[in-house]
Write a structure and sequence with these properties.
Oligomer: single chain
Radius of gyration: 22 Å
Order of helices and strands: HEHEHHEHHEHEEEHEHHHHH
CATH class of one domain: Alpha Beta
Distance between the termini: 57 Å
CATH topology of one domain: Rossmann fold
Amino acid sequence: MVLAEGIRVLKKNNLGFVSLFTGAGGFDLGLNTAGFKSLLSVEIDDKCRSTLKLNNPNVKLSSEGDIFKLPSSNIKKEAGIKKRELTLLVGGPPCQPFSKSSYWVNSSKSRMKDPRAKCLSEYMRVVNDLLPKVVVIENVSGIGYSNKNDGLNFIISKFKQINKINNTNYKPYVHIINSADYGVPQIRKRVFIVAIRSGEKFNFPPAMFCEEELCGELNLQKYRTTWDAIGDLDSDISDASLNVKGKWGDLLPSIPEGQNYLWHTNKMGGLSLFGWRTRYWSFLLKLSKTKPSWTITASPGPAIGPFHWKNRNLSIREMARIQTYPDTYNFSGSNREQKKQIGNSVPPALGELIGLEVRRQLFGSKVRRSLKLIPKLNEKSYKAERLRKVPEKYFDLIDFHNEHPGVGKGPGAKSAIKK
């Protein structure tokens, strides 16, 4: 029986997992919360490795963090496993070639030609050499969102090759998860690919949360919001490092909560300072107390949000909470380095979700359906922030502005074609 095989592996490895491209450890933390045990973490970034050690001095880091220089034989030796013994292999290979912004610039270009996409090859190389019971790959939704679907097709083709070589039966099940649907106070869409060596089907859990106006009809809980996550930190922080700098910082107070630069176009309620959709979505984007946050990013520019409703940058702790890191979890490095680690993370609560479902579906474990890492409801009342007038220094921008012509047709795409 397939289940019997799963139980044997479960007993032998005690729910052990190896993580590749571990980053700051968000996925690992979630799996630990779900009852799994880390056998080895593979991560190249020194600050991320310091973060992993800071939060768990006993964490086992691979001797070589660069996956391109780390033989699979070393992974097996350092994790204390043989081929086919590992219960779970997880990881999120770097995803820049498949990001939404990459498609916006030039939707027709193959992402697999980008050198950074080679990390997918290395991940699948480790799958072939370890043959774990379960494989989980996390990536941006764009990995399967193009005319070519080149990233996703590459992964599927590699699984077919692995099956042919090793007489396995990996069948990848693909699902786009919106973090907010599972209690994460953030709208963050990511692809999760789960493949089981025996060919068993993996059912992604149905949404547990939804927009408040739909919850009665769907019998779900309402989305956890930024107020639930960081409302108890809502105060006038006098930290100059959180001030919004650059050309556009003084325009932010004239944009309502939950809006972005589009407020100041001819289709919204502000002044006509910009053309419709001529800027990236996160430009001057501000959080709303009544909604989940928009995606926390790793390296935002000075005018790229989401910003706090008090017209400032988010603090490290606020960003971490929105990603569902507990307050006991700390990050190494400078402010910029910490933001990068948090923005690149898998929300720990999603790691917890996947871990619990793997245990329930494959090993027959009786596990809880609620997640420990999502925030509780914040019943404290709040006020809407006062909207301020547009400063005069922006008045020379008032004009009729053309709309963006569409995906792959903007100035960036035209420049790329000329090259």
